Amino acid sequence: MRILVTGGAGFIGSEYVRMLLGVPGGTAEGVPALEPTGVTVLDALTYSGNPANLAPVRDDPRLRFVQGDIRHAEVVDEVVAGHDVIVHFAAESHVDRSIAGAAPFVSTNVLGTQALLDAALRHGVRRFVHVSTDEVYGSIAEGSWTEDWPLAPNSPYSASKAGSDLLALAYHRTHGLDVVVTRCSNNYGPYQFPEKVIPLFVTNLLDGGTVPLYGDGGNVRDWLHVHDHCRGIAMVQEKGRAGEVYHIGGGTELTNKELTGRLLDACGAGWDRVVTVPDRKGHDRRYSLDITKINRELGYAPSITLGAGLAETVAWYRDNRAWWEPLTGTANA
Ligand SMILES: NC(=O)c1ccc[n+]([C@@H]2O[C@H](COP(=O)([O-])OP(=O)(O)OC[C@H]3O[C@@H](n4cnc5c(N)ncnc54)[C@H](O)[C@@H]3O)[C@@H](O)[C@H]2O)c1
């Protein structure tokens, strides 16, 4: 099986590639044996794409890396040819950046996805796995979203992801393309670009700095270790039903304030290192996914507790300064 992974030099995509290629010492338990004969990464290497994320599998003869933009139909057409499956991660992914400027979010997340879907149709790709987010539902005060919940995105990021989800599902209904969509909660783990809250806080704390807490710190997120996310995607890739959406959650909801407390503890710092900043515009209050469907149909359940995952993540950032210092501009500072 030849698998094309878009955005495979990013945080989650690179974990998927490392998992597919079975990095020695990687936790393969509970991961379907997809046994790829070839894995192609198509990635534009934007600010968040980093070839160093693929260093552990760089020498695997099954890996091919193509630097290219999913918005360029000719490039996409050439790369998609010969693949059985596309797992589509490539996206502009940071909400704050989408508030500052929405154009790259719409062009990459919507039009880039369309270019990939068209190429998948042309080349008879057998399965298109579209990786999306719980943010497409907006915010929920109580209870949890099921997969048939109406979409009500609030940020330009989530609106562009919702657009791409609908487009992918429309290609299934209109053209019969085998599409499956996954929607997951907030990921954390090694190799996450230090603009997202957990690596931002951890790297600031390790550097002796302060951390910015939005508003009253009461926004609630469900935290999912990136490895559990990728296990869930692999299960959907292997056995998900065409045309269906599957939620992948971590099962641990925390307010941002509670999360901050855990990160301060893990880094041995106190609340004097926390600075309250004005709330993000249109900030969703709470996300919560019901994961009954993927659990019943595919046997998915998160396997890494937040306590163990955060400890491992903090240790990884402590041990891998050479990876993140060039990204935060703190090297030799
Ligand atoms: N991080 C999360 O918590 C989270 C949660 C839910 C869903 N997701 C989704 O998972 C996917 C991956 O997220 P991530 O956190 O790994 O993001 P990331 O920003 O770390 O990685 C995105 C990757 O896509 C590449 N890319 C961006 N624009 C491109 C383009 N036009 N052409 C080709 N490559 C391009 C980047 O170079 C980068 O390698 C995204 O689709 C995102 O919406 C992420």
How would you describe this protein?
This protein has 333 residues and is an alpha/beta fold. It has 2 domains: 2-187 and 226-248, NAD(P)-binding Rossmann-like Domain (Rossmann fold, 3-Layer(aba) Sandwich); 197-220 and 252-288 and 304-328, UDP-galactose 4-epimerase, domain 1 (Alpha-Beta Complex). 39% of the residues lie in helices and 17% in strands. It has 11 helices and 12 strands. Strands 3-2-1-4-5-6-10 form a 7-stranded parallel beta sheet, sandwiched between helices. Strands 7-9-11 form a 3-stranded mixed beta sheet. Strands 8-12 form a two-stranded parallel sheet. Helix 5 links the parallel strand 5 and strand 6. Helix 6 (197-206) packs parallel to helix 8 and helix 6 crosses helix 10 (306-319). The N and C termini lie far apart (46 Å). Nicotinamide-adenine-dinucleotide binds next to helix 1, helix 4, strand 5 and strand 7.
Give a concise summary.
By secondary structure, the chain is an alpha/beta fold.
- The number of helical segments is 11
Roughly what fraction of the amino acids lie in strands?
15-25%
The CATH architecture of the largest domain comes to: 3-Layer(aba) Sandwich
What general outline do the C-alpha atoms trace?
globular
Helix proportion: 25-40%
Rg: 19 Å
CATH homologous superfamily label of the largest domain: NAD(P)-binding Rossmann-like Domain
